[in-house]
Amino acid sequence: MDFISTRNNAPAATLSQAIAAGLAPDGGLYVPRQLPAARELQAGESLADTAAALLQPFFAGDALEPALASICREAFDFPAPLQSLATANDHVLELFHGPTAAFKDFGARFLAASLTRLRAGEERPLTIVVATSGDTGAAVAAAFHKQPNLQVVVLYPDGRVSPRQAHQLGCLGGNIRALRVAGSFDDCQAMAKQALGDVELQAQVPLSSANSISLGRLLPQMSYYAHAALTHQAAHGGLLNFVIPTGNLGNAMAAVMARALGVPLGRIVLATNANRVLPDYFAGGDYTPQASVATLANAMDVGAPSNFERLRWLYNGDDAALRSAFVSRAVDDATIRDTIAARYRRFGEVFCPHTATAVQVLEQLRASGEAAAGEHWAVAATAHPAKFESVVEPLIGREVPVPPALAELLQRPAHAEPCLPEYAALRSVLRG
Q1: Is-contact 410 165, C-beta < 8 A?
Q2: Tell me, what's the pLDDT at 122?
């Protein structure tokens, strides 16, 4: 299988080439020239087994194909359980049991395992440039820490991530370098994309990406949706519908692609915070990127979601068809707070702000009848609430226990370098 750019102005690439490059030369995102045909799938004995079977058509004929099973075992060595919520036929897919307590551990570890194999024997190290609105950078830093022949430069908006997220970004050292940018996530993302498209710089310093623009992160993220939906269907019959909190659209795009491959997923609803680019578009407005707004659900503070290019590609640029296929709703900070407090008070459930955003949207769908009583719905729980203790704990009136892996990271000293929100500043860092 080969891969093309969403902008159709770059040579086709093999899977290995697309993973190594991160971004296509024309600035577009890599997508398969043609999706594999939908097929009947079954859940494997483990998430890793399901992932290997699901991803095999994408790896067919590629240099990484013989290593696919071992890459999956390395990346998916922690669970993604589908748990029942207190309300009937509602579930939560817990994606926060990895080393940095966020869903991005899955894709980051898969990408690291892939690139480690692809870079074996190379003389010059590959530098991964990653912009983060909170969780991506920590997952990438942990996944690539001490990996041979690989370096990471993480850009994050100073003051716009939670204290524990910021600590995770700067606590590893070694081949990981954290830059706290005096700007927004959109500034960080624009700087990273400019670096990846800088031909002169790439000739001096080989670069790649680990943001959700990376094919090496997108493809493996299909796996936990497939495993949950297939396991649920075997136990209950019928389709599992999802509400997915989204910022850059990578996690939701993975679910959409999994459904296109034949995974028994029903409707996919996109939940956002006060950054309304997607809800406004799906309500009939133009797609108009905007400056991002800082919110409690900071990992979703994105005003120009990169993966919208992939979503449009999947629907052949047909805006009418795309709008008819999805619903997207925004939730403001006050409602996020109310949802966290009310769900704990009523049911003892504890959610991070991002997961609470999706829970609120599911509550709205149930109340309006858009989600019928007999339908099974799941919320993607994208991060552990302990990462947002300054928001969650005052609302529930108690401490949130910290997972052991996260506690270990928080015990390390942390350091991040200040950086201006200008490409020249990043270019200087990358050139060393």
Answers
A1: no
A2: 86
Longest dimension (CA), the chain: 59
β-pairing, 30-32 vs 240-245, is: unpaired
d(CA 319, CA 397): 45
CA distance 56 to 71: 12
Helix (DSSP H) and strand (DSSP E) numbers for the chain: 18, 14
For the chain, the residue count is 432
Dist. CA 432–CA 421, nearest whole Å: 18
Helix axes 353-368, 333-347, angle to 10 degrees: 80
Identify the helix (H) or strand (E) that includes residue 150.
strand 150-157
pLDDT the model gives residue 330 = 98
Q: What would the pLDDT profile of 366-419 be if each residue is shown by its tens digit? A: 999 999 999 999 999 999 999 999 999 999 999 999 999 889 989 999 999 999
Distance CA 271, CA 127 (A): 33
Residues paired with 30 in a beta bridge: 5
